[in-house]
Batch of 2 targets.
Target 1
Amino acid sequence: MSHDPIQPTRDDRFTFGLWTVGNPGRDPFGAATRAVQDPCRIVQKLSECGAWGVNLHDEDLIPFGSSAAKRDGIVADFKKALDDHGMVVPMATTNLFSQPIFKDGAFTANDPKVRAFALQKTMTAIELGVELGASTYVFWGGREGTETDACRDPQEATRRFRHAIDYLCEFVKDRGYDLRFALEAKPNEPRGDIYLATTGHMLAFIATLKNEEMVGVNPEVAHESMAGLSMTHNVAQAMEAGKLFHIDLNGQRIGRYDQDLRFGSEDLKQAFLLVRLLEGTAGTTPYTGPLHFDAHAYRTEDDAGVWDFARGCMRTYKLLAERARGFDADSEVRDIIAAMTDAAIDPLLGAPYSAASAEALRAMPIDIDTIAKRGLRYERLDQLMIENLMGAR
Ligand code: GLT
Ligand code: MN
Ligand code: MN
């Protein structure tokens, strides 16, 4: 059999949530089109497809309200499946949105009993995640929002959310767990408006936490795109701040509901630029954490289509990584980018402020007319990217 260079392997660090490939195709307008799958079978199938790991919410594995004995049995079977199929659980999270008690939010709900229950549920779910080996814990506050802002002061919501994250950081420290938190933003859906709507909001919020170093972000392509923003810019800001703890890869068209489509199936150019950034093919520091696909197969698919979908996410990522390496090795691309450097001025701009450096900078002659007239060749650069993407280079 010939070697397939885009066949996913464990070394690629690809992961899927149980809820992603396990999505039965239910939507607000229609019932499930696929059977609910056993989590152990998902582990086996993902392993066969070449994934490295599987992520979960507490309720993806343990049905809400299960007895302690039932829970322990499920966990034992799941651990065995992980071992049998060489799979890991790098990330875990809490379902704080499905149960009706969370209709007004979880950590930000007005009823203190709901907030207390959200903390109880999360502490139990953190124990489960740690037991399964997770080192990242995601917080996606899908219900932390409003339809009517008359119900609470949004400033109070921020304070409540901060209290919950501060409290849970202390819980993790108290237990001595090796666990970091990753906050995931979304602008709306299922609530009319969700607090801390984008990754940028999350980064600003994290700077106000007591254990700031334990908390980073989990940006999702679909969620940043729903807000009309550039996923690549937002991920880059998180990387530059040392805060990209996790990532949710999928596909989305701007202006729609949260589509969670197969990675790279929409806006191929943005997907390419994102992979280029994550892989650091332009010479920047790469992201080395899990590459998680938070997406699901079209509702039209049967079981076979689900695994086509999963393989598609991983194969597209690998193809884009290969394309990005080719693009950044292309001498014409390198020449266009290198033309922006200036050996005389770069060292001066790189130096910290001093009275002497400021004087040197201010004395530097700059021919503004020539610079303003010069074409930057970005049209050619973008065309090179498109031709590279289309396999013409
Ligand atoms: C839910 C949501 C995702 C989050 C998951 C983690 S659950 O499917 O749509 O974006 O990442 O809670
Ligand atoms: Mn989504
Ligand atoms: Mn997500």
Target 2
Amino acid sequence: MCRHLGWLGRPRTLAELVLQPPYGLLVQSYAPRRQKHGLLNADGWGAGFFDGTTPRRWRSAAPLWGDASFASVAPALASHCVVAAVRSATVGMPIEASAAAPFTDGTWLLSHNGVVDRTALPGVTAAESVCDSALLAAAIFESGVESLGAVVAEVGASDPAARLNILVANGTRMLATTWGDTLSMLHSADGVVLASEPYDDDPRWVDIPDRHLIETSGGEVRLTALDTAP
Ligand code: GLN
């Protein structure tokens, strides 16, 4: 299980969001607090952000804690919308930068915490990697992010062992699903953080219940239960 983080609000630097919090993605790369699958997230990382409406990414197959170049530049990269992740590769998946989230279709940045049987994703074309998460991202992009909840429920029905926590943003909207793993939200006057686990001990963090879709835009948050009918 990887760990991911999304931000939508006033511009903040990647250092502020990813590196500086006491239990942020940097610390989660070697000592996550709530990870249920895997012990650490050493198989790469990715930081994506919107520059206006253009998604930009910096990804790596190496551990985040060893990246002095990112640590040097991250304080100078600020954005109103960020999707970042640290990766613990599922056994059998390639360890390469192109398998690290966030994935993109040129409009959205998408991260996946979890695992899915690739045979439950038939007909996917043009994925960034053969990694299960890259195929799932491609499937969601092909169906349209509007149908995120339906795609997750459908894939979850065809692979009951799947864990499908998705985080996806386009600069003005951010959506996430909970399906088998943890997700927490910190909603403040400055914006909304969605993260696999709280990055500090702020008492305003709330846990999102499993099998839900959460969507935020314009400072509003909406939570809906996903359809889990067989
Ligand atoms: N299955 C994905 C991968 O191999 C995601 C792994 C995870 O969430 N740890 O990268």
